[in-house]
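Human: You know discrete backbone vocabularies at least as well as I do. Show me how you would write down a chain together with its backbone fold. No explanation is needed for now; the record alone will do.

Assistant:
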Amino acid sequence: MIQSYSRPNSKVELRFRCHHLKNLDIVSKSDPQIFVSQKRGPGGFQFVDCTEKIKNNLSPEFKKTIILDYYFEEIQTLTFTVMDIDKEIKLFGDLDKNDKIGEFTTTLSNILSRPGRKIIGDIIHHGKVTGKIEISAEEINQTNHEIFLRAEGISLDKKDLFSSDPYYKIYKTSPSGEQLLVFQSIVIKNTLNPVWPQLHMKLEEFNGGDMFRELLIEVYDYDSVGSHDLIGITRTTTDAILRGVIEYPLINPKKTSKSSYKNSGILKFYEARLEKNYSFLDFLAGGCEISLMTAIDCTGSNGSVNATLGLHYNNVALGGSAYARSIASVGSVLSSYDSDGFIDVFGFGGEYRGSTSHCFPFSLDPNVPAAYGVAGVLEMYNNNISKIPFSGPTNFAPIIQEAMNRASQGQSPYQQKYTVLLIITDGEICDMDETIRNLVTASTLPLSVVIVGVGSSSFENMNLLDGDDGFLKDYKGVKAKRDIVQFVPFNRYADNINALAQETLKEIPSQLLGYFKSVGVRPNPPRAFVPVDILPPPPQ
């Protein structure tokens, strides 16, 4: 039987408003936030994403959108959970059921098939209506560009006694004529000439990929009590802004009847640019190399090499030890992207030259740090694993430091390379603080760390290193610049070794792109194909 995989027909952007929510707070109003979960096929609901939290508002309009892949041939059931959030939430499972305002459940196809691609539903909790939710959908065109804008106000109207507290909103006009909020700036206190921080977002989220779509911009004076005061509005398009139309008079409709009225100030975009989002393949085409470095756990907790229950035991029937199968799975994918074919191989936690070392050449020869290809790594591993006295403890910091040293060598905008460190281990980390410190530093380098856990350990510390729930912080409070760690337990994929490579390497393209974007490096121009003479076979 041939297994088929659905491909999305398009991407859909969902926007949200709520109306008349039940108030769960006593002193103030609720702080609502929407959490979106999706069910496709026979499985259960999976958390997708959430909006921002809006403070003290029972009829909020949310700025953040939710992007979903749309599959025509599937039923995509969506649940929208509205919560009153009083504390920081990192995981969907951390939500307190006592703060639940209610839920609304429908299908994506039901939203898309409605007039105007909009649905208004009842938010339900314990069988009672606790508010209304308004969901608008729009198909978005992938542009692979981001827009950067910097705005300032000039001589804005004074709305308070001495000044104003201005902020601005940008709306895009939907095909049905509805105004959809795409951005809201911060409030700048006590000024009539505010300079706002940079706006930076995906172009498709900003204007749906339509450069000529009308944009409505509103500038307000913020008031902590009561409604905010409108200073003025203007209309434009993305195309006009990028072509250099940067100054816009702000008009307050309530003042236009006065003969002396000109405007309520000027909104000026003093920076406006588009930036392309380069793909992983763009960097490969430009010659970026991906180098693999392998680190093998040689601590005593692995058990004897000769014992059938030992994790380094060469189980021929299964295709080798768990270590060998991990090397073969991950290495076979990455080796194609390395031009010289050499893979650095290190051990840690074993005895080397008479003492325990947490970073030593697996060849046991300091002059031979690498093996050629995956076959060479496996040959080195199988030949030398029985020669290394196992020791301990399990320390990662030295091997990560070695990877950092190698990743920082020979790097330039014209000679691009990226290093992937594969650590295969059976145990919990004993130098957690130093490991996190090194990983935080490594987040500024062209380096990713993939950890495969073999054996039956709980690997709790490994999950802490995998920054899916937020960037790592070291013991001094320094935060990682990006997530560079992916942890995968081997036993989960022991029966499907190809899936092991897919799971361990799935974040590498985005991590590579994140690094080069963070340092402002673009891919080099695509390398030209070098033709070679194709000679006919010699006569028989």
Summary: The chain has eleven helices and 25 strands. The longest helix spans residues 322-334. The CA atoms of residues 90 and 469 lie 6 Å apart. Confidence is low (pLDDT under 50) at residues 1-5.
